[in-house]
From TrEMBL, chain A:
Protein name as annotated: ATP synthase subunit a
Family: Belongs to the ATPase A chain family.
Keyword check for Membrane: yes
The encoding gene: ATP6
Species of provenance: Cairina moschata
Membrane association type: Multi-pass membrane protein
Entry keyword annotation includes NADP: no
Signal sequence interval, chain numbering: 1-17
Molecular function via GO: proton-transporting ATP synthase activity, rotational mechanism
Cell location: Mitochondrion inner membrane
Chief localisation class: mitochondrion
Family annotation (Pfam families): ATP-synt_A
Automatic annotation (TrEMBL), chain B:
Membrane topology listed for this record: Single-pass membrane protein
Name the record gives this protein: ATP synthase F(0) complex subunit f, mitochondrial
Record text on subunit structure and interactions: Component of the ATP synthase complex composed at least of ATP5F1A/subunit alpha, ATP5F1B/subunit beta, ATP5MC1/subunit c (homooctomer), MT-ATP6/subunit a, MT-ATP8/subunit 8, ATP5ME/subunit e, ATP5MF/subunit f, ATP5MG/subunit g, ATP5MK/subunit k, ATP5MJ/subunit j, ATP5F1C/subunit gamma, ATP5F1D/subunit delta, ATP5F1E/subunit epsilon, ATP5PF/subunit F6, ATP5PB/subunit b, ATP5PD/subunit d, ATP5PO/subunit OSCP.
Organism annotation: Cairina moschata (Muscovy duck)
Feature: compositional bias, Gly residues: 1-12
Length: 214, 137
């Protein structure tokens, strides 16, 4: 439409869904639910972190809420899900992971390097294990981004394929079409769960990387 | 004897009427400014008066006559600030009517989501119209 891509609308729209609560004792139901959810998320994220980690509260909580909203909105018909684009997920994962790494290296360099070697490894295994741990460290941003992309894209793709199949089968073999629709129902429930879980996993892993390093 | 007032028409009564009839008890139904029964004419500004003259550009859309419509449109504020103000007013109207209420329901946010679906469909229509007669999607 007018040459503007749909991703712009789908990125800006979630801002409309979260009104800032007014200056009242009892807010509207929407505000109450959102505040409760925000409180739950912040509490869960901030408990394992130390005092320095609390500076990341706004970043992690808003990331979680944004991913949750974008993933769930993508399940509506004809909408666009920005998190299916690898570019966007890498743009989210890479700088945040790098920030956790650099924070650790800057503030506690020896401790963050010591994470490369788990405790109690037998001595001959040490060189191999350091290589393995370094690889696993360097692959974390890639894994974060690709995990989110792949899960969402695969879910959307499955829904599209199975719904096309059931629509195409309906005039020919209605019984099979009904079976397929049952599969579609289960898949949709799975998709809703996956949408929420993926957001959670993303932020959880980030906070984990943060705990080690801050 | 004029019949007693029902509900809370008390604020608009002239002092003579207030002296004649005892003030009404606490209303058992939500008070409205208009009386429930016809009362003798008293000088109050009801909807039978002629509309107050207002400059054209400030009139509400529903009050503008059809012939005045192009002039009214031309005189509206189309600066970025004006458009922003109009969007803000529309948003506040919707928000205060459907969402910012004590017992708001599912409908308030469902309308927003339905509008989002419709706008997404319109936005991607040029891409979707090729799917109509396609054999393999």
């Amino acid at each position: 439409l007018l040459g503007i891509p749909l991703i712009l609308l789908s990125l800006l729209f979630p801002a409309l869904l979260f009104p800032s609560p007014g200056n009242r004792w009892v807010n509207s139901r929407l505000s109450t639910i959102q505040l409760w959810l925000l409180h739950l998320i912040t509490k869960q994220l901030m408990i394992p972190l130390n005092k320095n980690g609390h500076k990341w509260a706004l970043m992690l909580t808003s990331l979680m809420v944004m991913l949750l909203t974008i993933n769930l909105l993508g399940l509506l018909p004809y909408t666009f899900t920005p998190t299916t684009q690898l570019s966007m997920n890498m743009a989210l994962a890479f700088p945040l992971w790098l920030a956790t790494l650099l924070t650790g290296l800057r503030n506690k360099p020896s401790a963050s390097l010591a994470h490369l070697l788990p405790e109690g490894t037998p001595t001959p295994l040490i060189p191999a294990l350091i290589l393995i741990e370094t690889t696993s460290l360097l692959i974390r941003p890639l894994a974060l981004g690709v995990r989110l992309t792949a899960n969402l894209t695969a879910g959307h793709l499955l829904i599209q394929l199975i719904s096309t199949a059931s629509v195409a089968l309906a005039p020919i073999l209605p019984a099979v079409s009904i079976l397929t629709m049952a599969i579609l129902l289960l898949l949709t429930i799975l998709e809703v769960a996956v949408a929420m879980i993926q957001a959670y996993v993303f932020v959880l892993l980030l906070s984990l990387y943060l705990q080690e390093n801050i | 004897m004029t019949p007693p007032e029902g509900g809370g028409g008390g604020g608009r009564d002239t002092p003579k009427m207030a002296a004649q009839h005892p003030p009404p008890p606490l209303p058992s139904r939500p008070s409205s400014r208009e009386p429930q029964r016809p009362v003798p004419a008293s000088p109050r500004r009801s909807d039978k008066m002629a509309p107050v003259p207002v400059p054209l550009k400030d009139m509400k859309l529903l009050d503008v006559k059809l012939g005045q419509l192009p002039t009214w449109l031309a005189m509206r504020d189309f600066t970025p600030g004006g458009i922003g103000g109009a969007l803000r007013r529309g948003y506040e109207r919707y928000y205060n009517k459907y969402i910012n209420v004590k017992k708001g329901g599912l409908g308030g946010i469902s309308m927003v989501l339905a509008g989002y679906i419709v706008i997404s469909y319109m936005w991607s229509y040029s891409h979707l119209k090729h799917d109509r007669r396609r054999k393999y999607h």
